[in-house]
C-alpha cells in the first residue's frame, strides 16, 4: 500500500504495539490512531517525510518524545500525543518544525524544562488570524474507475476548557498544551514571541519563576491557563492588553501584588485568581491600604492659579 496517504484507525479497540511496517508508508500524510489501546514505544516514521498529522492521543504509549520528529517530519502541522505514558524531557529538536500549529502533549509523565526555542515555530510566530485548510487529495475508485477525493481531517483537542472534536482545525486553532505533566523550571521568555498563538495551557506542572513579562505581545491569545504551578511575583501589566482573551486561569500559584486594572482582567471570575494568598485587587478583595489615584485636573492655561 505504498500510495496510502491517509490512515484513520481512530476510535477502535486496537491493542498491542503499533506495527513497525507503518513506518514504510513513504507517501503517508496523515495518521490517526487516537482513542485505542496501543502500547509500547512508537516505531520510527523517519521515512514518512510527507507526514503532516500525527495523532496518537488516548493510548498507553511509553518511551520518550522521539528526536526524529524534529529531524525528519519537517512538514508536521499537528503533533498530538496527549493522554499517553510518555516520559523524559521535550526534545528541543522539535523546534525545527516550522509549520507546526498544534502541539498537544497533555497528560503524560514528561519532565525537565520547557525548551527555549518555541519561538522557532514560524506559523505560531506569525499573527495572521487563520491557517491553511487541512485537506488532502487522495486516490480512490468509483465503479472500477480511478477517482480523486478530497479528505478533510479532524482533531480532538481541548479548547477554552472544553474538549471537542474539530473539523479542519488548522483553519483556526493554533495551540500548545503541555498541561498535566511534571515540567519544572521557569516559563521561557521566548514564548511571548509566539504572537499568533491562540491557546496556551501550562497548567498542572511544577513550573516556577514569574509570568512572562512580555506576555502582552501575544495579541491573538484567547485562552491562557497557568494554574496549579509554583509561579510567583506580580501579574504583568501587559496581560491587560490581550483584548481577545476570554479564558484565564492563574489560580493555585504564589502570585502576589495587585491585579492590574483593566476592563479585561476585572471581567474574569474570582476563581481565575484564587489560591494566590498574596494576590489582591478586584475581582478579589482590595489590597490593604490601597487608594485609587487622584484624577488629574486641567485648569487651562488661561486661568489664574
TrEMBL record:
<dbReference type="InterPro" id="IPR001611">
    <property type="entry name" value="Leu-rich_rpt"/>
</dbReference>
<keyword id="KW-0812">Transmembrane</keyword>
<keyword id="KW-0325">Glycoprotein</keyword>
<keyword id="KW-0472">Membrane</keyword>
<keyword id="KW-0433">Leucine-rich repeat</keyword>
<protein>
    <submittedName>
        <fullName>EIX receptor 1</fullName>
    </submittedName>
</protein>
<comment type="similarity">
    <text>Belongs to the RLP family.</text>
</comment>
<dbReference type="InterPro" id="IPR046956">
    <property type="entry name" value="RLP23-like"/>
</dbReference>
<dbReference type="InterPro" id="IPR032675">
    <property type="entry name" value="LRR_dom_sf"/>
</dbReference>
<keyword id="KW-0732">Signal</keyword>
<keyword id="KW-1133">Transmembrane helix</keyword>
<keyword id="KW-0677">Repeat</keyword>
<dbReference type="GO" id="GO:0016020">
    <property type="term" value="C:membrane"/>
</dbReference>
<dbReference type="Pfam" id="PF00560">
    <property type="entry name" value="LRR_1"/>
</dbReference>
Amino acid at each position: 500500500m505504498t500510495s496510502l496517504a491517509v490512515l484513520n484507525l481512530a476510535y477502535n479497540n486496537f491493542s498491542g504495539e503499533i506495527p513497525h511496517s507503518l513506518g514504510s508508508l513513504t507517501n503517508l500524510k496523515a495518521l490517526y490512531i487516537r482513542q485505542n489501546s496501543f502500547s509500547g514505544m512508537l516505531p520510527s516514521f523517519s521515512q514518512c517525510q510527507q507526514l503532516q498529522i500525527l495523532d496518537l492521543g488516548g493510548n498507553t504509549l511509553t518511551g520518550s518524545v522521539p528526536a526524529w520528529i524534529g529531524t525528519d517530519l519537517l512538514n508536521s502541522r499537528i503533533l498530538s500525543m496527549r493522554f499517553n505514558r510518555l516520559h523524559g524531557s521535550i526534545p528541543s529538536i522539535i523546534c525545527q518544525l516550522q509549520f507546526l500549529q498544534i502541539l498537544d502533549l497533555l497528560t503524560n509523565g514528561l519532565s525537565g524544562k520547557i525548551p527555549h526555542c518555541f519561538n522557532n515555530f514560524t506559523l505560531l510566530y506569525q499573527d495572521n488570524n487563520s491557517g491553511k485548510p487541512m485537506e488532502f487529495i487522495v486516490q480512490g475508485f468509483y465503479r472500477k474507475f480511478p477517482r480523486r477525493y478530497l479528505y478533510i481531517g479532524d482533531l480532538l483537542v481541548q479548547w477554552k476548557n472544553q474538549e471537542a472534536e474539530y473539523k479542519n482545525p488548522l483553519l483556526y486553532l493554533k495551540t500548545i498544551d503541555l498541561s498535566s505533566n511534571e515540567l519544572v523550571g521557569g516559563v521561557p521568555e521566548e514564548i511571548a514571541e509566539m504572537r499568533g498563538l491562540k491557546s496556551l495551557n501550562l497548567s498542572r506542572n511544577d513550573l516556577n519563576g514569574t509570568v512572562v513579562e512580555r506576555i502582552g505581545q501575544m495579541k491573538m491569545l484567547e485562552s491562557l491557563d497557568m494554574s496549579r504551578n509554583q509561579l510567583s511575583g506580580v501579574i504583568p501589566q501587559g496581560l491587560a492588553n490581550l483584548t481577545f482573551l476570554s479564558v484565564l486561569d492563574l489560580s493555585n500559584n504564589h502570585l502576589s501584588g495587585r491585579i492590574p486594572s483593566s476592563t479585561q482582567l476585572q471581567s474574569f471570575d474570582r476563581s481565575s485568581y484564587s489560591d494566590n494568598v498574596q494576590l489582591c485587587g478586584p475581582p478579589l478583595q482590595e489590597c490593604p491600604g490601597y487608594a485609587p489615584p487622584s484624577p488629574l485636573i486641567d485648569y487651562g492655561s488661561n486661568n489664574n492659579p
